[in-house]
Amino acid sequence: MIKKEITVTNETGLHARPASMFVQKASKFKSSIVIEKGDKTINAKSIISVLSGGIGKGTQITLVIEGEDEQEAEKALVALIEGNFGE
Predict the structure, then answer these.
(1) For position 86, what pLDDT does the model report?
(2) How far apart are CA 27 and CA 42, in angstroms?
(3) 21-63, pLDDT tens digit by residue?
(4) Which of 8, 13, 15, 18 is catalytic?
(5) What is the DSSP string of 11-75?
(6) What pLDDT, in 10s, does the model give residues 12-26?
(7) What are phi and psi of 18, to 5 degrees?
(8) Could you confirm whether 55 is annotated as catalytic?
(9) Is the pTM of this model over 0.85?
(10) Domain coordinates of the chain in residue numbers?
(11) Which fold has domain 2-86?
């Protein structure tokens, strides 16, 4: 299992297009992927869960990834967040 703390820095946070991009990327992996934000646990493969998570600019989240392709998933999702979703 990998736990990675990261801060969302793009302007809109995980809302609309960035949330969609994140869910699409997470869904490509077999591993279980959740986002921890405070006491909330958010399914990273569900657009409804991600949108309702209230993850705005400057929010620190923890990605929890577990499964056979967890390292590849971590690299891809961290790159997406750190690249500000191409904004």
Answers:
(1) 85
(2) 14
(3) 999 999 999 999 999 999 999 999 999 999 999 999 999 999 9
(4) 15
(5) TT-SSSHHHHHHHHHHHTSSSEEEEEETTEEEETT-HHHHHHT---TT-EEEEEEESTTHHHHHH
(6) 999 999 999 999 999
(7) -60, -40
(8) no
(9) yes
(10) 2-86
(11) Histidine-containing Protein; Chain: A; (3.30.1340)
